[in-house]
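Notebook entry, structure prediction.
Reason for the run: the old model in the group folder had no record of what sequence produced it. Starting over properly, with the input documented here first.
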Amino acid sequence: MSMRDFMSITKALADENRVRMLLCLRGQELCLCQIVELAGLAPSTVSKHMSILRQARLVEGRKEGRWQYYRLAGRDASPAVRRAIDWVRKSLADDPQTARDAERLERILELNPQELCESQCGHARSRTTGR
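New structure, fully documented this time:
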């Protein structure tokens, strides 16, 4: 692993919101709107956090139409990335915030993702246009 890769990973993991977002991707792919709902942050803020996680190669993303999806880095990830993800998961397995996020995510997954995304877009528009 290079120093650059190491610094990229540590930078990505140095923010509680990014770690929470990383953990919510355990075993599943999520739409950005689902991550926004979980984090309770503005879509642009979540996008920036996800971009940092992606630059560190901790997550992978794909675009499908208007929607952006994320998942944990897969088997093709470097050993350092796989170890970092494993370390985060094991270190926070018993953390109360992690448990609350898991429960909240279960409720979010019951919602229609398209309606969730559209409602967030509407809220973002009303914040920026005053409508």
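Summary: DSSP finds seven helices and three strands in the chain.
The old model has been moved to the deprecated folder.
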